[in-house]
Amino acid sequence: MSAKRTLNSFRAPDERGAEERAWEVVRAAYRERAPGGRRHAFARRAGVVAASIVAVGVVALSPAGATVGRLVDRALGVQHPAPGLFSLPAPGRILVSGAGGTWIVAANGSARRIGAWRQASWSPHGLYLTVAARDELAAVSTRGVLQWTLIRPDVSDPRWYAPSGYRVAYLSGDELRDVAGDGTGDHLLAAPVEHVAPAWRPGHPYQLAYVTAAGGLVVRDAGTGAKLWSANPGVRVHELAWSADGQRLLALASTAVLLYAGDGRRLSTRPAPAGGSIVGGALSPDGRTLAVVTDGSSSTVTVYSDIARHPVVRRVLAGLELGQVAWSPNGQWVLVSWPAADQWVFVRVAGKPRIAAVSRISQQFSSRLTSARFPALEGWCCNARGAAG
Amino acid sequence: MSLPGDPVPGTAESLAVAGPLPRVRMRRPRSDRSLIAGTLAGAESDLELLFRRHWPRAYRAAFLIVHDHAAAEDIAQEALVAAIRRLDRFDRRRPFGPWLGAIVSNRAIDCVRARSSRRELVEANLEQGSPPSASVGPYSEEVVAALSALSPEQRTVVVMRYVLEYTPGEIARALELPRGTVNSRLRRGLDALESRLREAERQ
Questions:
Q1: A137-155 average pLDDT score
Q2: Which of A43, A186, A339, B166 satisfies CB 3.0 to 4.6 Å to A374 for a cystine?
Q3: What is the ipTM of this complex?
Q4: Which residue did the predictor score with more confidence, A8 or B184?
Q5: Is B202 exposed, middle or buried (0-12, 13-18, 19+ CB in 10 A)?
Q6: Chain B (74-133) residues lying within 8 Å, Cβ to Cβ, of chain A
Q7: B115 CA to chain A: closest CA distance, Å?
Q8: B72 at the A interface (CB within 8 A)?
Q9: Where are the domains of chain B?
Q10: Where do the domains of chain A lie?
Q11: Whole-prediction pTM value?
Q12: Homologous superfamily assigned to A49-381
């Protein structure tokens, strides 16, 4: 018998049993996605916001010129969202990690699953990813091909040095570690540290900012191991980011946004709005504009232009329980995740104001419906100079 | 049991007694497109027909690529769940089978690649004993053994062509490869497979 006919008549082991088991799973998935299931999910999400207003209100913000023009207030999602991620409003690719693993979304909306990783981050030029599973750090190509792996306990928050990509910093339990970009030379940099993603200082090899377990802010030379400076922020910092030129270090705490100079001087402290707390933020690719998500009676996304000098503050989106924010590589859009509404909201913050929303995000990035969870934004890559956004 | 006087099936008499043969209308199987429309409208029976039609090939293809029935079952299952969840975004002018097959193949390739990179870990585990693979029957075992000698890339292309019955163009699109690459992998893979199967037959 020829190979072709042999393959054609091939039967796999236990086909019938496998089919019945699979049918149970597929049927369960279908029943959850059927209209009744969707109503159930909606009711569950509505429960999150209790007695809050579910109807969408679109309100023009004032004063004139202080906003991109529109605010979706007290809402459980933007009205008339696209049912699927058909395309991105700006060039680049979005990296996402969730219950279904890590995915890359291309500008045309197509999504490629990279693997069952828990976290991921872009390399400086978007050619590779560092990815983390529970006890494994790895580098993979954007097609998911493994380049190297490293087994370490409780790995998280890998970050690639820009622009060269020669080093990767990551957390392993309460240790801050450093490994070369080819997976060699892994070593301990500091311990114990707080569970905050470290931040490489762009253009200053190889200066790394991190938060100690005692809450101190430290910048250390990863090449020599020397501590360059440290500061006591006085608040619990949960996110660090350098400006693109490496001259400003931003530290986000739930109660304030702190700005440091490259030499460790504190330049400014901007408290969170009364009754609110800062849940996340991101610097624009040029490092001049900051987008911050604040939670309170309602969540808001606020954009601070010219962060280093005379910030101009604009609220660009408000809703209930907004999540993360990421900048488009061209700096014209911010992407806001909205877990409570199961939406991604794209807000144009440069040029003509515009809002575009996509629904059913958790379903689109899960491997099984039963484990559908809202995925985390890991970055929108890359601008012309290659810095991951 | 036939009773005395009953017409005997197949005889001229029975035909005469029974009159003209009833017209049997052969019902044409419903198209995938129609089943998808029914599924989207909420008909679980249509989903089941669609599932039963496509499951065997999806599972066989995954098995022939990963050579592990448990992993293959997971891959095919997840691919079908993913396909069902994205059904409302599926362009119904396109055939469903190749779309599903592309999901299965890509996931199976990911699985093989991830495994090969973790081979050291897997081998360490194997030394401690691994669960026996379900029997696949003597003939199938020859196929599996012959396929395992191919590279994962060749294996995938061969399986997509001769198990999933894709055209080379469809394979190229699904795997994002140049068509020439698909053709050369197919040719080499098939040659290697033929020679291994011939060897197995001689033994």
A1: 91
A2: A339
A3: 0.73
A4: B184
A5: exposed
A6: 76-78, 80-82, 84-86, 88-89, 106-107, 110, 113-114, 117-118, 121, 133
A7: 10
A8: yes
A9: 30-202
A10: 15-48, 49-381
A11: 0.55
A12: YVTN repeat-like/Quinoprotein amine dehydrogenase (2.130.10.10)
